[in-house]
Amino acid sequence: MRVPTANVRPPHHRRHPWISRLSLLAVGALVLLGGTGVGTVAAGPVATVAGTLTTRLAPEPFGEYVTRLSFDVTSIEPALVTAISPNLLTISGTMTNAGPEELTDLAYRFQRGAALPNEAAVRQEIAEPAEPTDRVQQDFTPMIPTLAAGASTPFTFTVPIAGAQGLDVSSPGVYPLMVNVNGAVTLEGGPLEARVGELHLLLTVMGAPGTAPAPGTGASGKPLPVNFVWPVVDRPHLGVGGVFLDDDLQTAIAPGGRLATLVDGLLDPAPGTVPMGAITVVVDPQLLDELDRMTSAYRVVAPGEPQPSMDQMLQAEGSFAATAAPTGGTVPDQAAGTGVDGSVAPNTAGPNTAGPNTAVETAAIDPTTAASGATTLPEASTPPGADAGVTSAAVDPGAVQIPGTVAGTGQGAAASFLERLRTVAARYPTLALPYGDPDVVAMVRAGLLGEVTTAVEHGTTVAERVLGTESDGSSPNDPAAAPAITSPPITSMAFPINGATDAATLTALQSAGLSTALLSEESLELDGSAAAAAVVAVGESDIPAAVAQPDVLSGVGDLIDHGRQSGWAKRVNALTGVLAQQSLDGSVSRTTNPAIFTPDRRWSPDAPGLRVLTDLLATLGASQVISGTSLTGLAASASEVAVPAYPEQAQAQELNHAYLERVKTNRADVTSLQQSLGGTPQTTDPALVLDPLVVALDAAGSTAFRTDAAVGEANLATVESTTAGIRGGVEISSAGNSYTLASSSSPLVLTVQNNLPYNVPLRVEITGGEFVGLTVTNPELQVVPAGRSQQVKIPAEVSRSGQFQVRAVLVGPDGSTWGQPVQLSVESTAYGALTVIIIVVAGGVLVLMVALRIVQRLRGKPDTTPGLPGDRPADDAGTPALRDVIPPPTGPGPDSTGPGGPAPENRTPASEQVGTDRS
């Protein structure tokens, strides 16, 4: 017959199997030692071990089976005990027999400990629960008679909260609680009574049922200020020119999508009861911009197709504008347009009708057309330098059939989502990030300070435009659908990713107009203890910041990520205990640090998880356990002093430096083109091409590209190909690149061909001439008209004759190069100055020597100048012999009757002549 359970279920034992084994060994030792008393006591157990097992063993073996039952708790009511709560704690869920043996006669009882003294003790209890023994129920409550191995069954545990028959709770506090389940384990020798399961929880009491809170203190005495940051941030989807690179955003905002779940989680009834200021929504203005574009017609790159070029987009827009003109009407004066690489569109308004102060629209065509020479460049419609009116095309790219793209279909989803997002912005404080959520620390480190400022300013403009800044409910798209905005978006607070930053970045953000910040405690060095706000010293100025402490809401992330999956009720139970204890600690010390929770930037919770969180925040708020706190208000109240301490882990996660250098190069190139072309009168607005490049670069530093830079890489590739096409549209003609200089100061004449629709200021530089005796004077800047060729004369001087190679390159006003360098072959047939000097000097020497010889002969002196070629003796008159001047004939001798005639009769033999000269 079984012993009553009250005699075999000691309240203090838990999880000590090694004690059980030592007890058995001790019993065996006593038997071996013998003795009257010992034998009497041990006879029963020894017999039991031998095969007649009973339930009268010592209590230690019960710990062997304490983990046989596992519990999945699905409900704890009330989650927070208050003075008005029902006086009954009910815990429900499912339990499973995880062992290989059947369990029988299951029963439970509650045990609780003393109220935990502080938050640290609460966290320790959550991590390593101990067995509470301050209050133990005397009786077990029966459950089910049998639970087979591996089987599961629902359970419900109940106990009075106040009163001697229950847990006997009479004051606020966080109490450790355990449900002790006993039963019989069916073994081969028979059933063994043991503790087969333990369920550890926290009992959070802000007021004992039936009691009243202290006057003026509320249920908790001092509510804990809480702010939960709620990011609604995605990755960029826009390509260059307003074309979407994918339609994934439509999926994210559709019912059940990630962004829809985040927004809808704040529109359920429960969040409406969350304390005012307890939630702050964070949005990326680029997401707002993309959603706003999607509410009307938009284009998406077709699967497998590359991003369309700016030429393709401008050509399509130009064709659309031309066909959209009213039938029979007059199309505005329109000159033939050319693409960024010189391709030419037909003139739809007649030949050269555009003149000064005439609006000109430009359409581009396939760049291969111009390259093949299939089109003819028109005469310039406006003389270079004329004050021509310039307009940008006002064509909506979403309405144009751009090659390689398809029409987007998310207009309805975008309009609905934006309406709900505006409702959220009307209910909760909304913090706007810089446009594209840039990786500000990495960008500052790469020298992209201007880009950070641009992102801040652009983000402010877009956020105020899309969300609205007035309280009249106005909206740029649907005024009737937008709710009243209680306050404009927060655009003065910096919130770098993960709250991590350094001094240089804070200085840059402050210079960009951000006067406060939300930072992580991990990126700061505080003078004192942990604080929820601090004045961060950066150089000569300070910036007040709200400080989010790590793990301040331990368990929230797990709660959100798993929602109402297995164990969610226990996670809520633990989080409730932590927040309540923080509140209770504050009521004792009269000071408490606000709790700021910042989840991952692009978090992805499920709907049940968010509902659990908002329900909890609403319950805690209604019980005055928590209250809302403003991030900007926290920052303004900062008194602690801190300095930035950028974590190494954060630096390791930054955007790739090589990628940012590429962004930097592209930005400089686009800026150069804007300055060069924008500073010259134009008939075609270069902003049509350049402005979309600027917008694309504004979001090139997004933190989303830390893990997937596909969109950023695609946009940079398009920017690079476009700028290269513009710079390559002006070139030095490759025909006739060989030059012959007939004189020492002959100019080089080159032909510059401008295939662009823009007037381009350029000059030609010749390099390499200094090494071959060629000196050139590079000409001043001159404007090469759009679609024209122009000859450029370059003054040159040569110091020697011969053939040599030099290089010609086109250079813009800022020193940037255009087109490809051209090798020139230069041949000089003229004598240079040095050569002339040498010849003159040599001639002078020769004349001087001849003069000396003449003088000598006139004086009758022998010629002492050695080595002069052609010396001959003089005749008697002192003049050179005729034969010395005229060489003798080479024909027949003196008797010849040939053409030479007979030889002169007065010829003297050579020997005699020589002798006469020497007398």
How would you characterize the overall build of this protein?
This protein is an alpha/beta fold and 919 residues long. Among the domains are: 198 residues, Immunoglobulins (Immunoglobulin-like, Sandwich), CATH 2.60.40; 60 residues, no CATH class; 71 residues; 101 residues, Immunoglobulin-like (Sandwich); 52 residues, no CATH class. Helices cover 31% and strands 21% of the residues. Strands 3, 4, 5, 6, 8 and 9 form a six-stranded antiparallel β-sheet that branches. Strands 15-16-19-18-22-17 form a six-stranded mixed β-sheet. Strands 10, 11, 14, 20 and 21 form a five-stranded parallel β-sheet that branches. α20 packs antiparallel against α21. The chain is elongated and about 160 Å long. The N terminus and C terminus are likely disordered.
Question: Any descriptors?
Answer:
919 residues, alpha/beta, Immunoglobulin-like, 31% helix, 21% strand, elongated, disordered C terminus
Write a compact overview of the structure shown.
With 919 residues, this protein is α/β, with parallel strands linked by helices. It contains 24 helices and 32 strands.
User: What is the arithmetic mean of pLDDT?
Assistant: 76
Low-confidence stretches: 1-62, 214-220, 327-338, 341-393, 470-485, 874-887, 890-919
Helix content: 25-40%
CATH superfamily of the domain at 1-122 and 135-210: Immunoglobulins
Through-space gap between termini: 174 Å
Radius of gyration: 48 Å
Q: Got a strand count?
A: 32
Assess the beta-strand content as a share of residues: 15-25%
